[in-house]
Amino acid sequence: MKLTMGERAFGWLNVLLMLGLCVVTLYPFLYVLFASFSDATSFLQNRGLLLAPAGFDLSAYKAVFRNPMIMQGYQNTLLYVVVGTAINLVMTAMGAYVLSRPNLYFRHVLMFFIVITMVFHGGLIPSYLLVNELGMMNTMWALLIPGAINTYNMIIMRTSFQTVPVSLEESARMDGAGEWTILFRIVIPLSMPVIAVMILWYAVGHWNSYFSALVYLRDSEKYPLQLVLRDILIANSTDSMMTGAASDDKYAVGETLKYATIIVSTLPIICLYPFLQKYFVKGVMIGAIKG
């Protein structure tokens, strides 16, 4: 079908608009990237847009990798991501499986109270007192146990579990299978797309989380990477990373050092997200199915 002049103009206008949005969205990241590779003095002298590194220099990255807190933060974050995601997945799967059973008594009442938690919650002070009374203060369990189940994710998984044919469950029960066997050997293997989505969502959440660590952790050796980054950016704790630098140069080096720290801490997610984006979209579509 031949397009009219108005349709072609509309198409080109959409293309230009999308390109403009891409530039506006991408440039802040490019600015941080260029600044991290810039010479400190040249970067501070730059005015206006930064379209290339202002004097290529890797000193900021060398200082970042010399900082033991960055490496310790990486190790802590990887531990929290792996253990936390495993806990989230098991707890969410069990809750979603129970709520997806049509013969569960008071199922709608339970769902009502569960959905309420998406709107109302106890607040920070009661949560802090509860974690303290349970003896989890200053441990990684304070970061992982209180958020073991995300209500929205459980609803998505429940909707997916409801699509598993009932005949498979009935045949498994005739062969003597119990609830645990049905969940882990029938329902979960048939719901791997939503399981993959849950793994991604929970893992990204743990990777980006810092507020719980800020509230519950006291020892800096247990800080996740994002909290280390916060200390560097907000508390301006860059002096320990610039040993050997003259006092007059510390401010200039500290600016590029902050940008290098941002790139180092966000690079894993930036590299993985383009390959995982389709799973995020699929997870949203799964949750949109009425069950």
TrEMBL record:
- Where's the ABC transmembrane type-1 domain? 74-268
The annotated topology with respect to the bilayer is: Multi-pass membrane protein
Task: Supply the name of the protein.
Answer: Putative aldouronate transport system permease protein
Q: What is the lineage of its organism?
A: Bacteria, Bacillati, Bacillota, Bacilli, Bacillales
Q: Which family does it belong to?
A: Belongs to the binding-protein-dependent transport system permease family.
What organism is recorded for this protein?
Answer: Paenibacillus methanolicus
Query: Which residue windows are transmembrane per the record?
Result: 12-34, 78-98, 110-129, 182-204, 257-276
GO CC aspect terms: plasma membrane
Pfam families for the chain: BPD_transp_1
User: Keyword annotations for this protein?
Assistant: Cell membrane, Membrane, Transmembrane, Transmembrane helix, Transport
Subcellular localization(s) per the UniProt record: Cell membrane
Q: Which GO terms describe its biological process?
A: transmembrane transport
Q: Which PANTHER family match?
A: ABC TRANSPORTER PERMEASE PROTEIN MG189-RELATED-RELATED, POLYGALACTURONAN_RHAMNOGALACTURONAN TRANSPORT SYSTEM PERMEASE PROTEIN YTCP
